[in-house]
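Q: How would the structure tokens look for this protein?
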Amino acid sequence: MSVTLESLAICFQGLLPALLFTSSQDGVPNAAYLSHVDYVDPSHVALSFQFFSKSRRNIEENPFARVIVLDPDTGQGWSLRLKYVRSETTGPVFERMDLRIEAIASYCGLKGIFKLRAADIYEVLDVEAVPEEKGTRCAERHTAQANHPIFTIRALQDFGERIQRADSLESLVDSILAGLEESFGFRHSMILVPAEDEGVLVTIATRGYAHDGAGAEVRVGEGICGMVAEARKPIRISGLMRGMLYAMAMHRQAHEPSGLSPRWRIPLPGHANPESQLGVPLLVRNELVGVLCLESEVPYRFHEEDKASIELLGSYLAIAIQNMQLQQRAGEALVEGLAAVPPDVPVSGGPEPGMVVVPADRIAGSPQGVAAAPSRATEPRPRREVVYYEDDECILVDGEYLIRSLPARILWRLLTTYDATGRLEFTNRELRLDKSLNLPEWKDNLESRLLLLRRRLDQKCPDIRLVPRARGRFALVLQSDVALSSRP
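A: Here is the predicted structure in token form.
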């Protein structure tokens, strides 16, 4: 073959449908559209076998076929003369093609319906350009791309230095997303971690979106992030009716009931019509630490080399995130041992300069009903109505959803402690020892829950803040009156 299959990699991303030509043993021809042609090696491709069709019957009678794939940049068509070799129902080629079909189907709520029956492997006998669609921009684009690689040694060094400077989980995840943009040009990204509820991921950091989206949840197996978590393999999707599929998925989410009230759901950030997505699992010894997702409005923005490089970086980032969590926890124990500060005694430092600390109202129905420290403020202050729904373990502030699950229990514990004792400073260790919070004894991910809570407070009510004081120690900063009440 004068033209190599590697040089046609862009034609195998599924952006434009391919045309498959077969003929029966009697020579009766048949043409059909094909959703996906996958690159296998320099002399083989795989065609998706999803339905029993005329094409399939023809192949069983006559193993020779021809497929035309299109370059989405130039419209250049390439004709591949094929010979059927075998069908695979397991293995890396089948799993890669099946994962892509499942990921796309999940967008329109059809996950599990479109089944890949087999990956049909064909030997490529010859490749030639389709004359009437011949163009030149394809080669120019490939040449330009080759001359401007993204993952240079310098870019990787800059990215690594940025990661090493992070001194907390919050600064680490922010540095990862900032580095992906500034070093490699990936402007839209997000990191999700396993939530307290089994089978759920929660967003802890985003970059490049108008809507921050911290706290947005997806189920494992739902959308590209959920599919990456379920398969624990990278997924790359480009174009091909993505806008329609995405809209169908959003329509379904808006009309079907879920475990969480729709008005309490935080929408996952993202483009209205994403053309390209790349998700990679963050794994440490096969344990899912999180999912990194990149998104672009540019068709086939993420090429094979991007996928391989981001997958490699993902291994490094997963270790960095897990190490930071372990390091923070170890540091908290050391600080606790040296300081031995009684949890019921306010520590030195107090409120920030210029901060207004005001007493909270009594909790409705509370037997304690102790007013907190006297106010030093004289000017009118804003007032927040904080309601904790016990059955849903959910907090609303001024009638708007704030947070649920473990972060909600933590915030409620902090506010009620302040209301009862006036204490403003807390430690991670005392939260871990508080049995009412029901933290797991091992790998409680407390740091990521506190990070999520801080970001939700910053978004929804910035006059209630959690400010780090030292490793494993933070302050509750109130710049408004807070009225607390709990409901079933």
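Residues 138-147, 254-259, 341-377 have pLDDT under 50 and may be disordered.

The longest strand covers residues 77-88.

Upvote if useful.
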